[in-house]
Amino acid sequence: xxxxxxxxxVGGGVIGAGWGARFLLNGIxxxxxxxDPELQRKFETVLAxxxxxxxxxxxxxELPREGSLRIASSLADAVKGAxxxxxxxxxxxxxxxxIFAEIxxxxxxxxxxxxxxxxxxxxxxxxxxxxPERLVVGHPFNPVYLLPLVExxxxxxxxxxxxxxxxxxxxxxxxxxxxxxxxxxxxxxxxMLEAVWREALWMINDxxxxxxxxxxxxxxxxxxxxxxxxxxxxxxxxxxxxxxxxFMSQFGPALKLPWTKLVAPELTDELTDTIVRQSDxxxxxxxxxxxxxxxxxxxxxxxxxLRDNDFASGAxxxxxxxxxxxxxxxxxxHRATVKPDWIDYNGHMTEHRYLQVFGETTDALFQHxxxxxxxxxxxxxxxTVETHIRHLHEVTEGEALHATTQILAADDKRIHLFHAIYxxxxxxxxxxxxxxxxxxxxxxxxxAPARADVLExxxxxxxxxxxxxxPEGSGRSVGVR
Amino acid sequence: xxxxxxxxxVGGGVIGAGWGARFLLNGIxxxxxxxDPELQRKFETVLAxxxxxxxxxxxxxELPREGSLRIASSLADAVKGAxxxxxxxxxxxxxxxxIFAEIxxxxxxxxxxxxxxxxxxxxxxxxxxxxPERLVVGHPFNPVYLLPLVExxxxxxxxxxxxxxxxxxxxxxxxxxxxxxxxxxxxxxxxMLEAVWREALWMINDxxxxxxxxxxxxxxxxxxxxxxxxxxxxxxxxxxxxxxxxFMSQFGPALKLPWTKLVAPELTDELTDTIVRQSDxxxxxxxxxxxxxxxxxxxxxxxxxLRDNDFASGAxxxxxxxxxxxxxxxxxxHRATVKPDWIDYNGHMTEHRYLQVFGETTDALFQHxxxxxxxxxxxxxxxTVETHIRHLHEVTEGEALHATTQILAADDKRIHLFHAIYxxxxxxxxxxxxxxxxxxxxxxxxxAPARADVLExxxxxxxxxxxxxxPEGSGRSVGVR
Lengths: 481, 481
What we know:
The structure is a homodimer.
Chain A: E1 6-10, H1 14-25, E2 29-33, H2 39-57, E3 69-71, H3 75-79, E4 84-87, H4 93-104, E5 112-115, H5 122-125, E6 135-140, E7 149-154, H6 160-172, E8 176-179, H7 189-205, H8 211-226, H9 231-238, H10 243-251, H11 269-283, H12 288-308, H13 313-324, E9 331-337, H14 351-369, H15 373-377, E10 380-391, E11 400-410, E12 414-423, E13 428-441, E14 446-447, H16 452-465
Parallel strand pairs in A: 1-2, 1-4, 2-3, 4-5, 5-6, 7-8
Antiparallel strand pairs in A: 6-7, 9-11, 10-13, 11-12, 12-13, 13-14
Helix pairs in contact in A: 1-2, 2-12, 9-10, 12-13
């Protein structure tokens, strides 16, 4: 889709503000409308959480310059000039329908309106609109600035092209779109979440377990698996070598057992009170703010761990990080700060720390081209066979550094590259390193071509960089000139 | 309970072998009975996976010496001399009842029999036993050697003391026992898992989504949260500042919406075929063996990430690792191998690498006493203010090293400690380091007492170590004697 520069948020609660944070961190300007008098404070709190989490999740990436936030005075003020609208109002069909009809009249017809509804049907939500084809569900999960999943579901009148454009947009801001092919209440994810929730409420209602015990039953067991594999793949493995059919024959009969109530209990005042009381006990006085930070820290840690495995949401993040890099010019893939123990007796950064930073820059390049830990574990890796370093300028403790990389040449086994380390404050060039990387099969212990996907990325980079001027100082040998 | 030295496994499929691996890795001898002619091969495969995963999950811990595995020729042969029995047969009540009655007659009455049943009622399972009080459900989750959760549920005749002893035993082998207070079909976890599963089967049956789409709906969204927080705590946060009551009032009405099908679909041949076909597509030809490795790598990565945050299953692992350390004597908390680039031109390990290993040993001590990354993030940490090193013996590339730590003295702000590095092959002492650690408030930038829980662990260690002889070479200063 044409680039989204400005987005309007209708509703700025936990979900709306989560969208806002994700948009802003992607460099999109945001206007938000919500009558809550505390909107600004609450929104800024979510944004602070998101900034904190992103700094941890993307320590090395060059994120876009943050977008600007504007609190709109009305619905019309919010959507004015917007390239995209995301609605996150309470789950009331009448309310959403009324607002969609109103927004519809305020915007040119090509602007997509995404709804965060957890499970209301888009065919009904779009029924009062003049341009119903632009209404699409984009259902996210809290915290929206961290969890990748967004369910995309159109109504009867939603244009196929709108679903595609919405999916591409959400993907561009680091999400994992899941296209829901049949319109159904609760879509896919919330049908399962609701099944768990309804069963859990029955257990509280019947005094089977407390909120904490029910939570523990998930987080110490199946929840750990669900962070990277869903029910079906997990059960395929539970079937052992005979696989899925064996699992179905073994556990199929249990479907007849009274293992679920599935109907939700009546949400009486008494049940609500019990849940609130048990939930308070469970939180042990820890504030929502602090719990949010712990949640975010754990999410960042889990997704970073999965990124190292290039699996599930970890692969999503990796692809996103890769998309942030402008491959047409020299790459900036690594940043560092001069640490106290990097300083020698002269007060300058010690010689070998430059090679350390160059080494980390090479590692960042390998990550970028997909030659990661899993790649190494598969018996393939690049090795540095030659390095030529030039020390050009001193740097002192606490200075921020960034390193750039230019691919000078590449073939199926070699990468000839040129790194440069700069002091970030003033872009002062500090040192350069020209290297030859040789690709090896670590089991056979000899040079071998890189894997096709890695090679493809290397070739694309080398091709793009072949248009760049040769860096000053490349191709030199040591000697008196 | 009296220590468990020998355990009998009745049933050695995916779950039984998973128990076996966990027992063996905890130094427990195992006898297994299962009529499967391929038992040994399948069991060894699970054990190999478990060894691989534990090496990654506990890279520094001194694990017990692995127990011995014996394939029993009969049920009687398996349970002979066992201190504990774990049954993991197919989910058929008649079969389990018959076997329990048989085992019951073969064992002294104090030996606990744990059942891995996913949801059959212990009151029924124990009904043909002479000593029903010793039968308790210990329901684990696959892979048993990695996932901490074990649900403990007694029947009407199960002794309270048996439930306690079983819980203590499972905890001692690194698990997280969850006591199920009311006997109910499916206990707690499987009621929720079954709710998800039944709803998911409906979606396949009705062509709403494929197995892969359903899995994606979990693993890119709620599954990430569920790896460390359960539904109730997560929803408390979704309620934002107004908390749980607000969430209930906001999402309570959705309980009336048709978001779940309520019952399981008929498991027809056609539905089974569809699931098997979609599951095959989803696996993309990757073998069960390879998928198991990916699952285990991800689980290890996720749990290690949570350990760094000292949260949920990460805290369970941390406590387990701590329990492995014998605190009465000198601690062995760190191991390393002399790497090629640690070697100087003489072919020996370079001087400053000793200090590196000592530094890593100090870090391991900090981990052990709970002064971890989260502790540092909270603005508290120990700093090394003084170190005295003695270089006693050379070591060459590839040698395995281990380091010991003795606490010489401690107060609320200081730890006076003595490390020693040994060549593991022959326990040759290579170097010692005596250090003074000062506890600081990193924000106030001054010395401050350690946090109560850390201090408690330090005091316990210092107290235990005060009974040890003063290490040779401690208390020295540099000089000609």
